[in-house]
Amino acid sequence: MSAHLPGSEQRLGGAMSEINVTPFVDVVLVLLIIFMITAPMMIRGIDVQVPRTETRNVQPEERLVLTVTKNKAIFLDDQQITLGRLQKVLTGLQKRNPRAAIFLRADEKVPYGVVVQIMDVVKKAGIDRLGMVTEPLHPRERRR
């Protein structure tokens, strides 16, 4: 028998020489998920302060988003607008900036004729740069 003296420690077994990596792996996986979720939100460009000059080398482009909802409501950026007023606004925009661009986002449930009618209004206003906004198909959704 061994006597237990005050101030002395009694050890059971040998010293543990392995590191438990389970908590480390858990933390790494949580950080990976956080970065995977936040990375697409951070794609805004690099914030730089460019030098100033007296002359303007490149004219800034004006890009507006024209949205058509499934109930045929039309929005220019985030403001609802009627089809008649849209042509007046776009004509004024084209006169201010001949290189203005419009991106058209239409719900897939909107009839084709409505989309073509809106595209016609954009072209009548003199805006030649019209882009269609779509979502890419996932690999398993692709049709063969």
Briefly summarize what is shown.
This protein has helices at 22-38, 83-96, 112-124; strands at 63-68, 74-76, 79-81, 101-106, 129-132.
Describe how the helices and strands are arranged:
Layout (H helix, E strand, L loop, with lengths): L21 H17 L24 E6 L5 E3 L2 E3 L1 H14 L4 E6 L5 H13 L4 E4 L12
Parallel strand pairs: 1-4, 4-5
Antiparallel strand pairs: 1-2, 2-3
Helix pairs in contact: 2-3
Architecture overview:
α2 (83-96) runs parallel beside α3 (112-124). By secondary structure, the chain is α/β, with parallel strands linked by helices. The protein has a five-stranded mixed β-sheet. It has a domain at 63-132: Nucleotidyltransferase, domain 5 (2-Layer Sandwich). The longest helix has 17 residues, at 22-38. The mean pLDDT is 77. It is built from three helices and five strands, in the order αβββαβαβ.
Give average pLDDT, whole number: 77
Kindly report the spatial arrangement of strands forming the biggest sheet: 3-2-1-4-5
Q: What's the total helix number?
A: 3
Overall shape: it is: elongated
Number of strands: 5
Kindly name the structural category.
alpha/beta
Beta fraction: 15-25%
User: Over all CA atoms, what is the radius of gyration?
Assistant: 31 Å
